[in-house]
Write a structure and sequence with these properties.
By secondary structure, the chain is mostly helical. The chain is about 65% helix and about 0% strand. It binds fe (ii) ion (2 copies).
Length: about 325
């Protein structure tokens, strides 16, 4: 659903002396020529580590992102909404699986990644640590959260690592359906009864700022951005993407008759975009540290799902062992 490097992370280590300068030069030339780097190709250790961190964070975000919406499947207001929501939550599971596979091609295992998530070592998008209080939150998530995800992910279709770029092509098609269904649900609420309009505005108020946080810390506090841009892991900076999102979303809110909860929001003719207020970065870093309103509930739900799914993994492994034995005989 989302990706960007989260929080203040240690800088990627400079390239060690152990790395062959000729190999490095050839690698950098390929990246500069917009060639894809594939799993068996030589790559600098820091490139590999940055990708493992970014792709696994992205995968975790897809999987944890199923939780706030999964909560509403039984309470969707109509059969049509229920079908749409079921399909969307299932898509997010698929996104997580493609991404875990892409990360595995870099030499990390599924078990290591899951263990890092469950122990709290790995990060995932801060957005999923906010609660979903009413049905309008589900509409707002589709419109804003999946909308922000598309903004982040479209440039990643041209990211330099082949398996990640290819996973993004399908993911982006599905995210675009997610954004549209959210906007459609929001349109219905915004044009509904007075109570529905209030619900829509209330959800918008609560999800607007966390959505802007999805693009990660401001560029001046994003130490890995320059290296990631150079290696074409990232194609745009956090602030560039945030600006794009605001410029596209504000007219959509106006069309719905909703008020953007930002008194500093103003069209700026010179830059051809909106000026907007400062994100509460203290809140952002607190949520990154695991202090989000429902962070604990999310991890408890994930751990329970993992434990309750143990028999499925064991059955699949037993079936595979039998199949191999039969094939060998
Ligand atoms: Fe997704
Ligand atoms: Fe999505």
């Amino acid at each position: 659903m989302y990706t960007t490097e989260l929080g203040k992370q240690p800088n990627v280590k400079p390239i060690g002396p152990a790395e062959d300068p000729a190999l490095l030069e050839a690698f950098e030339a390929r990246v500069a020529a917009d060639e894809f780097i594939e799993p068996k190709d030589w790559m600098p250790e820091a490139y590999r580590r940055t990708l493992v961190r970014q792709i696994s964070q992205h995968a975790h975000s897809e999987i944890v992102g199923m939780l706030p919406e999964g909560n509403w499947i039984t309470r969707a207001p109509s059969l049509r909404r229920k079908q749409i929501l079921l399909a969307k939550v299932q898509d997010e599971a698929g996104h997580g699986l493609y991404l875990y596979c892409a990360a595995e091609t870099l030499g990390t295992s599924r078990e290591e990644m899951i263990e890092a998530l469950h122990s709290g070592k790995a990060k995932y998008s801060t957005i999923f640590n906010y609660p979903t209080l009413t049905w309008a939150d589900i509409a707002a998530i589709g419109w804003l959260v999946d909308g922000a995800a598309i903004m982040n992910q479209v440039p990643l279709q041209r990211t330099s690592y082949g398996p990640y770029a290819r996973a993004m092509v399908r993911v982006c098609k599905e995210e675009s359906f997610h954004q549209r269904q959210g906007y459609e649900a929001m349109t219905e609420l915004a044009n509904g009864t007075a109570a529905q309009k209030r619900m829509a505005q209330d959800a918008f108020n609560r999800w607007w700022w966390p959505s802007l946080m999805m693009f990660g810390p401001p560029d001046e506090n994003s130490p890995n951005t320059a290296q990631s841009m150079r290696w074409r892991i990232k194609r745009d900076t956090n602030d560039e993407l945030r600006q794009k999102f605001v410029d596209i979303t504000v007219p959509q809110a106006e069309y719905l008759g909703l008020t953007v909860p930002d008194s500093a929001l103003k069209w700026n003719d010179d830059k051809g975009g909106y000026d907007f207020g400062e994100v509460d970065w203290d809140e952002f870093y607190a949520v990154v540290r695991g202090e989000g309103p429902v962070a604990r509930e999310r991890m408890t739900a994930r751990r329970e799902a993992w434990e309750q799914g143990a028999w499925v993994r064991e059955a699949a492994a037993a079936h595979e062992a039998k199949r191999r034995k039969r094939a060998a005989a």
